[in-house]
Write a structure and sequence with these properties.
By secondary structure, the protein is an alpha+beta fold. The chain contains 20 helices and 23 strands.
């Protein structure tokens, strides 16, 4: 017995048990090797006129024998001599395919696609086999040889005579795997079935360029007997037929003009196990230092587990049409985790097992290009088919918002224009750019209200007050909305009508437009403001002055109300947001945490006390209730003033969609007042 070169036992054990993690890929590796062998013969026929090859008959055959517990992978490729067996299979990590590619780099072109690279794929067979034999005959030779090994100590190479049943009449190789005995942990018998082998071929080697054939069981109706009566019922029988089980030509390698929308949809549904057609299909072809093809899909519906911990993002990664990873997470950012598709490149740097990628600039470059393509296609969908885009956003918009929040706003240039929000004034979904384009002169911010119900938000006094000023309000009902806006801070609106600092400049510009000039446009940074937080600065100077005077004149009243409410509020003051008898009071907040954020954070799974909003009770001095407060204070009725203050505070919380701390006490106070 010949010994493997290098520290064979250690290295081979490492190859079999450490490099590969998935037993199933042994068939992928053997089929890839067979494809390489055929490619070598085909290239030889292109460069040597004496070599005649019938391209139509080039194929790979896979068979199994359940009784003998063997799997056979055969090809009619270039085959190997005894010396080549010694060099290619006796020297671990020597890649004959890689050597062949280097020697024929100038001549192989697109007609040949050698897959092998590391010289270790063959040894993956020992993950499932206790013995592997290779019977091979080199092209142009009459000699046939057999290589046999148990994958432990070494191997034997022996000649095969013409009278031996395993002798090959033509060039090529037969690889026979005798499977290991079953253990408590692994049942190797699963590979001895037509269904399992077909599944492995279609999953990993579906797009190998040569036919992969198997004897496949089919069913057909028997001929009706001549003497059968009218009550004859058709009978069926099973039969086997040599059938091609792989597709060979990847759909992403075809020209888009040659593929119908229905064919793309069928590929998407069968590959990614979805029953609905994709919302959008697009492809990407990159050339240059890094070449790859990508076929990407925006699903028509969200998978049920999209926002669960178990959901795995990623695109299928192929190298030379061979599946390397079913979900390569590094190819898409988290906020595009819903995108499905395939990426195929022979240039990516794989690790030795071809199961994972090396982290290289190539991978980063592919990821950036794919991300830009997705962003561009989503923008096109938004502009071309608004109804379809709104449906898409309903399914996946939350992920885009999380992308902005998790990137601390650094991705707002890429994602902000893709967001949709409900316009209280327009009563429809609008983009931030559309909101900005519809703003009246003088508006310097985008206003929004956050809560869990759109109808309730529209009725809130603070929302109605902003609408009354002529400014639209975005009604945000997703729990991530306000966090998204906090991360963004502002929005860069493009192409807005120029804001002039003086009436003279405005009038001059208007006259210029009347005389035929183009209106002046400018980009403007708009702050994002919650209508319930901080000072919106919407009041006129007169309104601000009146509020300050009223606050000062009623300082004793507000101090008494603050004392009654304790640490529930930071202060009590006259509101500049409320007018007339719309509402007697509102709760607003100061600082980075709003009431809406407090509500979301308190409902989260994190242990410990959630951050609280710094609450301010703003009182409407023009409301009739204010006179009741003033009367209670003037009469010295502290008990009644405390009752009024508590009721005002709790009812203002209810308007915000927040339950009072003590609902029973609130109900008791209402009854007491009645």
């Amino acid at each position: 017995m010949r010994k493997f070169k290098t520290e064979s036992k250690k290295l081979l054990d490492l190859m079999i048990n450490s490099i590969y993690t998935n037993h199933e890929i042994f068939l992928r590796e053997l089929v890839s090797n067979a494809s390489d062998a055929i490619d070598k013969l085909y290239l030889k026929s292109l460069t040597d006129s004496s070599v005649q090859v019938d391209q139509a008959n080039l194929a790979i055959n896979v068979a199994f024998d359940k009784d003998a517990r063997t799997i056979t992978v055969s090809d009619n490729g270039i085959g190997m001599t005894s010396d080549e067996l010694e060099k290619n299979l006796g020297t671990i990590a020597h890649s004959g395919s890689e050597e062949f590619k280097a020697e024929n780099a100038q001549s192989q072109g697109d007609a040949v696609d050698i897959i092998g690279r590391f010289g270790v794929g063959f040894y993956s067979a020992f993950m499932v086999a206790k013995e592997v034999s290779v019977t091979t005959r080199a092209y142009g030779s009459d000699e046939c040889f057999r290589w046999t090994s148990d994958g432990i100590e070494g191997y034997t190479i022996s000649p095969v005579t013409a009278d031996d049943p395993i002798y090959r009449a033509q060039s090529g190789s037969d690889i026979v795997l005798t499977l290991k005995d079953n253990t408590d942990d692994v049942s190797y018998d699963e590979f001895l079935s037509e269904y399992k082998l077909k599944d492995l071929i279609t999953r990993y080697s579906n797009y190998v360029r040569y036919p992969v054939k198997m004897l496949v069981t089919k069913s057909r109706q028997k001929d009706k007997p001549a003497d059968a009566g009218d009550d004859y019922k058709p009978e069926w029988e099973d039969y086997t037929e040599l059938d091609t089980v792989n597709s060979m030509t990847p759909i992403w390698k075809k020209r888009a003009a040659d593929v119908t929308k229905e064919e793309y949809a069928e590929f998407y549904k069968s590959t990614f196990h979805d029953w609905a057609d994709p919302a959008r299909t697009f492809s990407l072809h990159a050339e240059g230092a890094l070449e790859y093809d990508a076929l990407l899909f925006i699903p028509g519906q969200a998978p049920f587990d999209l926002y669960s911990r178990d959901y795995e993002k990623g695109l299928e990664l192929y190298s030379s049409n061979v599946l390397i990873m079913e979900k390569c997470a590094d190819l898409v950012p988290d906020y595009y985790n819903f995108v499905r598709g395939v990426v195929d490149s022979s240039d990516v740097s794989l690790n030795i097992s071809r199961e994972t990628l090396q982290q290289t600039r190539q991978l980063q470059a592919m990821s950036r290009r794919i991300e830009k393509k997705i962003t561009s296609e989503l923008g096109a969908l938004r502009d071309d088919d608004r109804e379809a885009y709104e449906k898409f956003f309903e399914n996946f918009g939350r992920g885009l918002k999380y992308g902005l929040y998790q990137s601390y706003g650094s991705k707002k240039d890429e994602l902000a224009d893709l967001l949709l929000f409900w316009s209280a004034r327009e009563e429809k979904m609008v983009t931030l750019a559309e909101y900005a384009a519809a703003m009246p002169d003088g508006q310097a911010a985008i206003y929004y209200a956050a809560g869990d119900d759109r109808e309730r938000l529209a009725k809130m006094p603070v929302v109605k007050a902003v609408l009354a000023k002529g400014y639209d309000v975005l009604l945000c009902t997703a729990d991530v909305d306000e966090f998204c806006f906090q991360a963004m801070r502002d929005f860069e609106a493009k192409g807005l009508p120029k804001a002039y600092e003086s009436d003279e400049a405005r009038e001059a510009a208007a006259q210029a437009v009347a005389d035929g000039a183009e209106p002046e446009l400018e980009d403007r940074t708009l702050e994002l403001k919650n209508v319930s937080a901080g000072d919106l600065d919407l009041a006129t100077d007169e309104e601000k002055s009146a509020a300050q005077e009223a606050t000062k004149a009623n300082e004793d009243l507000f101090n008494a109300m603050k004392e009654a409410l304790g640490d529930k509020v930071e202060k009590v003051a006259v509101s500049t947001r409320l007018a007339g008898d719309d509402a007697p009071a509102v709760i607003t907040s100061e600082g980075p945490v709003s009431l809406g954020m407090e509500k979301v954070l308190s409902a989260g799974p994190e242990s410990g006390e959630a951050p609280k909003a710094t609450r301010v009770l703003e009182v409407n001095a023009a409301h009739p209730v204010f006179e009741k407060l003033r009367a209670a204070q003037d009469s010295g009725d502290k008990e009644r003033l405390s009752l009024y203050a508590g009721l005002l505070y709790d009812q203002a919380l209810l308007v915000e969609g927040i339950m009072p701390t003590d609902p029973v006490a609130f109900a008791s106070q209402v009854c007491k007042l009645m």
